[in-house]
Design brief:
The structure holds two protein chains of two kinds. Chain A is α/β, with parallel strands linked by helices. Helix content of chain A is about 35%, strand content about 25%. The longest helix of chain A is centred in the last third of the chain and has 16 residues, at about 170-185. Chain A starts with a strand and ends with a strand. The radius of gyration of chain B is 31 Å and the shape is elongated. The chains are: A alpha/beta, B alpha+beta.
């Protein structure tokens, strides 16, 4: 699914990630942990081709960072669902419209969109909020909308960048539960977090980063 | 595919109604530029008629001696008609000259003086397409040396001067049009850039969800096409009705091209699509 081969990315001197070698399998649930600035988000950005490594190669579902052309990045992204800490929802659109967006991008027909969005709303327990706008929802609910938007297109990989960062413990647990459920259905999930408590007793792989380097696995 | 196209059109329309201020500014920009362009085009369209009017005055008159008889005047006419620079000749005999005098001055010269002092003359019409002042001047000098020719009257210098001025006007007019189109492109491009910067979050979300650049661009193109159609159509109405008013108020006969609306809307579409694609190239 994902291969990092000797990846180095520099933002500036002493800031970035260095010589990362990682391999993540299909269906795996994997946590990237570490303090702020350790390189978790950078690794995720390299995965959805928002950044390109200065050294080394990222291989993702048949796409290689060294070969992919700018005009083909969107093809890779269609297979990835991304969840952000700040949700990145469209405020002028309803929950339903936000979730339907990736399906419109993929050219899915209207009837199928209605069915798929309903399923995603059910899974994230948002059915009754379909006609509401993001500003009318709590942080936890908005994050669930973001998850619904990420899973609605049935991606092979979910990248969650601090999805619980702005949430209270109850909401955070709920989000994690939804992600676990998605993973059980066969989607690979990579979640970046600095909330050690949240993942403490989880039976998944944990990759710990510090100052841009993998310190434990 | 049809659902995707419908979605993109709907997005373009939604954007158009959501971003009222930006769209209003863009429509206003197009309206102002295309109104000015429209006025200049109508004036330019009419200068062509003006040139043709002056060209229709490409004639000169050959006055013959009093002693000339009809056989001699026919001979001169035939000789002139064989010249390729001349398109036609009208012979004005003494009686016809007196009639013209009566039409123009309201007096019968024969009754006034007791005889007809007006000479026989030839009105010579020149070929407009072959017109060249130097060649015509040479021809006139040559005709002046003919037997029985008293004098030749020609005002070609003035006509040529006026035509030069009209050509200069057309040259500056073209420069002005190009400048206006350039300004339009620049202003529309800046407005679109502003609009895209305002919606950078939306663009970013589309990109993270796998939208291609074309998918992101199409709603902006639709929005920009709507702006240009509305702006240029209002500009057309303004230009059209103000010339109708000018014509009736000043009793003029300025012609308005019947396809004015087609090229105004067409040109504005081309300009705005080019301007928006230029703006998007820099952002996407």
């Amino acid at each position: 699914m994902v291969d990092f081969k000797n990846i180095t990315y520099n933002y500036s001197k002493n800031s970035g990630i260095y010589n990362i070698d990682l391999s993540i399998q299909d269906n795996e649930f994997c946590f990237l942990v570490g303090p702020t600035g350790s390189g978790k988000s950078t690794l995720l950005k390299l995965l959805y081709f928002d950044l390109f490594a200065d050294k080394g190669v990222v291989n993702l579902m048949g796409y290689s960072s060294s070969k992919i052309k700018q005009k083909n990045i969107h093809k890779a992204r269609k297979k990835i669902g991304v969840i952000f800490q700040d949700y990145k929802l469209l405020k002028q659109r309803t929950v339903y419209e936000n979730i339907a967006l990736p399906l419109h991008i993929n050219g899915v027909g209207r009837k199928k969109i209605t069915n798929l969005v309903s399923e995603a709303l059910e899974l994230t327990e948002l059915s009754r909020y379909a006609r509401k706008f993001p500003n009318e929802l709590s942080g936890g609910e908005q994050q669930r909308v973001c998850i619904a938007r990420a899973i609605v297109k049935n991606p092979n990989l979910i990248l969650a960048d601090e999805p619980t960062g702005n949430l209270d413990p109850t909401a955070a647990h709920r989000i994690l539960k939804i992600l676990e459920q998605i993973n059980k259905e066969g989607t690979c999930v990579i979640m970046a977090t600095h909330n050690y408590k949240l993942i403490a007793e989880k039976p998944y792989r944990v990759i710990e980063l510090d100052q841009g380097r993998v310190v434990s696995e | 595919m049809i659902d995707k196209i419908a979605f993109l059109f709907a997005e373009g329309l939604k954007n158009f109604f959501r971003n009222k201020l930006t769209n209003f500014l863009c429509i206003l920009t197009i309206l102002i530029n295309f109104t000015i362009l429209g006025y200049f085009f109508v004036v330019g369209f009419n200068t062509d008629g003006l040139v043709n009017f002056f060209r229709s005055k490409y004639t000169f008159e050959v006055f013959l001696d009093d002693k000339v008889n009809s056989e001699q005047s026919d001979k001169i006419t035939a000789e002139l008609e064989s010249n390729s620079l001349i398109s036609s000749i009208v012979l004005i005999d003494k009686d016809r000259s007196a009639e013209i005098f009566l039409e123009e001055f309201g007096e019968d010269i024969v009754v006034m003086l007791g005889y007809n002092p007006l000479p026989v003359s030839l009105k010579v019409m020149l070929e407009k397409d072959k017109f060249n002042l130097n060649t015509v001047n040479n021809l006139i000098a040559e005709i002046g040396n003919y037997d029985f020719v008293d004098s030749v009257e020609y005002r070609g210098d003035y006509i040529q001067e006026i035509e030069k001025k009209i050509n200069l006007f057309i040259f500056f007019f073209l420069i002005f049009i190009i400048a206006m189109i350039f300004i339009s492109i620049q202003m529309i491009s800046n407005t679109i850039k502003l609009s895209m910067t305002n919606r950078s979050d939306f663009i970013e979300i589309l990109q993270y969800n796998g939208a291609s650049n074309m998918f992101i661009k199409i709603p902006f193109f639709i929005e920009s096409a709507l702006q240009s159609i509305i702006g240029s159509f209002i500009a057309f109405l303004l230009v059209n009705y103000s010339f109708i008013l000018i014509n009736s108020y000043f009793n003029l006969n300025m012609q308005i091209d019947k396809f004015l609306w087609v090229w105004m809307i067409g040109l504005s579409l081309v300009v705005s699509i080019y301007a928006s694609s230029r703006a998007m190239k820099k952002i996407l």
